UniProtKB/TrEMBL annotation:
Keywords annotated in UniProt: Amino-acid transport, Glycoprotein, Ion transport, Membrane, Metal-binding, Sodium, Sodium transport, Symport, Transmembrane, Transmembrane helix, Transport
Xref: PANTHER family: SODIUM-DEPENDENT NUTRIENT AMINO ACID TRANSPORTER 1-RELATED, SODIUM/CHLORIDE DEPENDENT TRANSPORTER
Membrane topology classification: Multi-pass membrane protein
Name of the protein in its database record: Transporter
Binding site for Na(+): 60, 64, 303, 402, 406
Swiss-Prot/TrEMBL GO biological process terms: amino acid import across plasma membrane
Function, in words: Unusual broad substrate spectrum amino acid:sodium cotransporter that promotes absorption of the D isomers of essential amino acids. Neutral amino acids are the preferred substrates, especially methionine and phenylalanine.
Taxonomic lineage of the native organism: Eukaryota, Metazoa, Ecdysozoa, Arthropoda, Hexapoda
CDD domains xrefs: SLC6sbd
Cellular compartments annotated: Membrane
Record PROSITE patterns: NA_NEUROTRAN_SYMP_1, NA_NEUROTRAN_SYMP_2, NA_NEUROTRAN_SYMP_3
Leader peptide range in chain numbering: none
Length: 452
């Protein structure tokens, strides 16, 4: 009986799979395919667990740590789970499974998958590639910031925990008072700003009041961090899935070790219960707002990496009969669980910060995204009475590992597209070229910015 893969190859002469009976993997974990009549070998995952771990590392990322908690807080707290889970079941999980099925069936990356189905929709693949490339270059700049904070954390006196003398002149001109992050004084006044926020804007980003004379060259310390982040990404992807699959165990599991340690610490802090309750307390009236449902769709797509081509790319390295239904269920469920775990931990620590400052929890939750990761959270850590540097190190290591897991997948989309079209090129050359391109584009994001 003719298999689906064989029928597909007959209808599309430019695409054929020769992978043993019923598309099963060969002993050397490689698939033989024909691209425009030329037979080439395509690598496969060492085993199904490598694929699952890689998908977990890809989907569980920064969106779970710094985007979901603030998005939920802004859109109904615990009530936000209702639209989020509805969107996950009705849209997110089916699309995740659909992309897995498309990649596994065609054994090609996202560009070639759409092209082999119909040349008319080839542009979808290129659109996904463009989107994933743009995100990857910016994503790695965030990894550079994370590395910068990580290196700066290896000191008993965290650098963002106190005000610097050189800030005083500029602050006096702006009629702003710097308050040390170590102080138990509220910094919510209009003319007060925390040392952690000033350190992020003045020392890390090198923010300027105006850029009439140009933005200037990239900040050299962030440039080195960006170079290191791309080098580590290249090292993971140097042999394609043969190398990234082995590293996926660490990228997928290590963040949960750190999150577990941070959660244990969070629940032992004074005031943490108020923060956690504030995070999960439902605001039912917000469910009637369309923007809350829109936020649920945005968060679901962003968190799962749906529509970027990375799911298609990863599943294209599976054997033809791999059980992707199980994997899609595991990854999407674990992604939601991780978002809840991260939100509980983050708001537990912010609850302690509110307790120390003697202010309501909402007064210490200033923003999500980079504001939460590089201002609010470091500010809370600086107020820890014991070993604040240790928790700073753990937090930024966790952020970096989560980011690398997602970045490797985004990086792999470009690598796979090139290798699908030029299968004779060595994978390490492709990975090096795309990493260098990403580094050069990423320099734009680490130039001094304007505060205007």
């Amino acid at each position: 009986m003719t298999s689906n893969a064989e029928k597909f190859g007959q209808d599309n002469p430019g695409f054929q799979i020769e992978n043993g009976e019923n598309g099963r993997a060969t002993k050397d974990s490689e698939t033989k395919i024909k691209v425009d009549g030329i037979e080439t070998e395509r690598a496969q995952w060492g085993n199904g667990l490598e694929f699952l771990m890689s998908c977990i590392a890809m989907s569980v990322g920064l969106g779970n740590i710094w985007r979901f908690p603030f998005t939920a807080y802004e859109n109904g707290g615990g009530a936000f789970l209702i639209p989020y889970i509805v969107v996950l079941i009705v849209i997110g999980r089916p699309l995740y499974y659909l992309e897995m099925a498309l990649g596994q069936f065609t054994s090609r990356g996202n560009v070639q998958s759409f092209s082999s189905l119909s040349p008319a929709i080839k542009g979808i693949g290129y659109g996904q590639l463009l989107g994933s490339t743009c995100i990857a270059t910016y994503y790695c700049s965030l990894m550079a910031l994370t590395l910068f904070y990580l290196v700066s954390s290896f000191t008993s006196d965290l650098p963002w925990s106190h005000c610097k003398v050189e800030w005083e002149t500029e602050n006096s001109q702006r009629n702003v008072t710097c308050v040390s992050s170590k102080d138990t004084e509220s910094v919510t006044g209009r003319n007060k700003i925390s040392s952690s926020e000033l350190w992020f804007t003045k020392e890390v980003l090198k923010e300027k009041e105006q850029i009439n004379d140009g933005v200037g060259p990239p900040e050299w310390r962030l440039t080195l961090c960006l170079l290191l982040a791309w080098f580590l990404t290249f090292a993971v992807s140097v042999k394609g899935v043969k190398s990234s699959g082995k590293v996926s165990y660490f990228l997928a599991l290590f963040p949960y070790v750190v999150m577990g340690a941070l959660l244990i610490r969070a629940v032992t802090l004074e005031g943490s219960t108020e923060g956690m309750l504030y995070f999960v307390t439902p605001q039912w009236s917000k469910l009637a707002r369309a923007e809350v449902w829109y936020a649920a769709v945005t968060q679901c797509f962003f968190s799962l990496n749906v529509g970027l081509g990375s799911i298609i790319m990863y599943s294209s390295y599976n054997s033809f009969d791999h059980n992707i239904n199980r994997d899609a269920l595991v990854v999407t469920t674990l992604d939601t669980f991780t978002s809840l775990l991260a939100g509980t931990t983050i708001f537990g620590i912010l609850g302690n910060l509110a307790h120390e400052l003697n202010v309501p929890v909402e007064d210490v939750v200033k923003s999500g995204g980079t504001g939460l990761a590089f201002i609010s959270y470091p500010d809370a850590i600086a107020k820890f009475q014991s070993v604040p540097w240790l928790f700073a190190i753990l937090f930024f290591i966790m952020l970096f590992v989560l980011g690398i897991g997602s970045l490797v997948a985004l990086h792999g989309c470009a690598n796979t597209m090139i290798m699908d079209n030029f299968p004779t090129i060595k994978p390490w050359k492709v990975s090096a070229a795309t990493a260098l391109f990403g580094f050069l584009v990423g320099l734009v994001y680490i130039t001094p910015v304007s505060s205007i």
